[in-house]
Amino acid sequence: MITANARAVFSPEGPFERTAIERRDLKPHDVLIEIKYAGICHSDIHTARGDWGPVNYPLVPGHEIAGIVAEIGSDVTKYDVGDRVGVLLSPEIGFESRLLNVVS
Length: 104
What we know:
Elements: E1 2-8, E2 17-23, E3 31-39, H1 42-48, E4 64-72, E5 84-89, E6 97-101
Antiparallel strand pairs: 1-2, 3-4, 4-5, 5-6
């Protein structure tokens, strides 16, 4: 398991708080990213507040991430450790997570 620092909400009225979460170990097609920047937008806040339906708390929202590749799974060929990347999760792409090369 991987322990990661995160910001979570624990109730609809609560603030975003620092916490640690456990993530599963990397699988062959996974990329581990050392997050350098993450955004929380209006949709994350609406989700955290339960405005769009029931929420299981604690919740770690967020879908705009930029960082450095820290580790890659054995089957990953497109990225290398040290690459700058971004992650986008958006309705325009069907809420599928996309890993993007970030130009410096």
